Amino acid sequence: MPKEGGYAARVKELRGVTDMEAKAAKSTAGERHPLLTALIPVVEALGKTFGRYTEVVLHDISDPEHSIIAIANGEVSGRTVGGPMTEVGLRMIRDSQSAQDILNYSNYTRDGRKLKSSTILLRDEGGRVIGCLCINMDLTELSAAERVLQEYCRVETAGPSETLATNVNDILKHLVEQAVSAVGKAPAHMSREEKIQVVKTLEKQGAFLIRGAAEYIAKTLGVSRYTVYNYLDQA
Q1: Is 107 exposed, middle or buried (0-12, 13-18, 19+ CB in 10 A)?
Q2: What is the DSSP string of the chain?
Q3: Using an 8 Å Cβ cutoff, are 115 and 76 in contact?
Q4: In the prediction, which pLDDT does 9 show?
Q5: Pairing label, strands 114-123, 129-138
Q6: Is the pLDDT score of 54 beyond 70?
Q7: What is the rounded CA–CA span in Å between residue 74 and residue 178?
Q8: Class for domain 6-140, per CATH?
Q9: How many other C-beta atoms can be found within 10 angstroms of the C-beta atom of residue 172?
Q10: Domain boundaries in the chain?
Q11: Which of 37, 72, 137, 168 has its C-alpha lying 20 to 30 A from 52's C-alpha?
């Protein structure tokens, strides 16, 4: 009997599979492991859910040279059913007993497009790897969108703080709160000099251009409107 060649022989050797086990593992539609068969419609469902920029691939490792048994949005990588296992998959098969899932890693297509990928190992009842489910998200369009968003969010300088209010009284309230906060005391505990400082700050910020500002500031500081005007003369 001729010796089995190619990747299948190497996998058989590395995994220590007996001739009988290897024959049982052959990936014909009728003999495929039921877990892999059950996941075929899941591949299509995930592909439709995440859209055309996310490729979902199901591999049956019993035939690494033709391991792809289901694929959704294959245009991401250009692969189709019957395509081979990747080098990452081959390494995972080789170390099947100790291999672990690889999640959220960088990957690239043959034409250089960047992908975000995850490879989930599928095992039988005995813990042997029988296949893997791979998800490859094409980041090309997202990266372009990211650059556009960064440009929109870019500013030349920090600039002044301003309140984009719909009511001028909200602006006055915000200015007063900032001026009081800068002193670090509640108005009831401020000295005369500290209240003058609050009024001076508000005058520099244009608060007194708002109608009724003197009355509101006087009420906040616990003084009369005339006292506020007196503070203004001293500011």
Answers
A1: buried
A2: -PPP-HHHHHHHHHHT--HHHHHHH---TTTS-HHHHHHHHHHHHHHHHH-TTEEEEEEETTSGGG-EEEEESGGGTT--TTPPPPHHHHHHHHTTTT---EEEEEEE-TT--EEEEEEEEEE-TTS-EEEEEEEEEE-HHHHHHHHHHHHHH--SS--------SSHHHHHHHHHHHHHHHHTS-GGG--HHHHHHHHHHHHHTTGGGSTTHHHHHHHHHTS-HHHHHHHHHH-
A3: yes
A4: 55
A5: antiparallel
A6: yes
A7: 58
A8: alpha beta
A9: 23
A10: 6-140, 168-234
A11: 37
Greater pLDDT, 148 or 162: 148
Q: Is the dihedral of CA 227, 228, 233, 235 positive or negative?
A: positive
Q: Is the pLDDT of residue 16 over 80?
A: no
Render pLDDT for 191-233 as a digit per residue (tens, 0 to 9).
999 999 999 999 999 999 999 999 999 999 999 999 999 999 8
Alpha-carbon separation of residue 64 from 6, 144, 205 (angstroms): 9, 35, 73
Q: State how far the Cα of 212 lies from the Cα of 194, in Å rounded to an integer.
A: 22
Tokens of 120: 């989930």
Q: ∠39-81-17 over CA atoms, to 5°?
A: 70
